[in-house]
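Readers of this paper often ask what the protein records in our data store actually look like. The remainder of this section carries one protein's record, kept here as part of the documentation.

:::
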Amino acid sequence: MASVVMGMSVGSLLLVIVFIILLTYCVVGVLFNKAVIGGCGLELIPNSMFWMSLPGHIKDGVLFFAGLFCRSRAETTIYRQL
C-alpha cells in the first residue's frame, strides 16, 4: 500500500510527471521562440535541429550495438588491434 498514492502506482506517477515536464518544455519553448526570436514554422519547436537529428542518432546507436554481436571474431580482433 505504501507504493500507491491516491490510487496511482509509483510508475504511473512518474509518467504523469514526465509528460507534464515535457508538455511544459514544449509550450514554454514555442512561446519563447515566437515572442523573443520571432520564429515561425519549424523554428518554433525548441531545439528543432536536435529533435530532427534524433532518429538518425538512434539508428546509428542501434546499428553500432547490433554490430558488436554480428561481427565475426576475426573482424573484432583486427578492430581491437587498430
User: Anything to note?
Assistant: The two ends are 56 Å apart (CA to CA). Helices lie at 10-37, 48-70, 73-81. The chain has three helices and no strands. The mean pLDDT is 83.
